[in-house]
# Entry
Amino acid sequence: MEESPLEHHEHAEHAEHAAHSGDPFIIRVSVTIAVLAVIAAGISSLENVEAGGALAKLSEANLSQNRATDTWSYYQAQRVKKTIYDALALQTPEKANDAEKQAKHYDDDSKNLETQARKLETEVDAAQEESRIHEHRHHRLTLAATFLHVGIAVSTIAIIAKGQRWPWYGALLLGLAGIVIAATAYALQ
# Structure
């Protein structure tokens, strides 16, 4: 969710102006707006961190996948060379010893490459899973920030409606829901 860096400051300023009315209820609503704005700013920061984490892990997965693909290609080339030397050993008995040594070398090399490629594929899977976790957190935090922003907006209705209490109670519930949703971003995987 893109928002101005000054947006939360603006909410706090509006709350401060309303608090100058001297009405204790309006002061409580104003403080609620300020607190919800601060919490929303914190959650929005976490949301951005998680989005960055998801992209970083996805990039890491892509790089590992490219390395795995390259390693598998090199593995296949070594297997082809081994096959060529196996055929050479069969067709030219006078060169069989040298050809068998070369075939063994390429066989050993290809086994090492296979191990490396499988390890890289494991790294790809792990990075993709971490990216998914960051993305899940990001979505939860976006939802939480939305609840908080709606709570801030609903709080202002209590001020505009000259002390109506239901919008303030609704804003408190929305704020609490936003906080709970943000907490579940890290509790539930």
Notes: The mean pLDDT is 89.
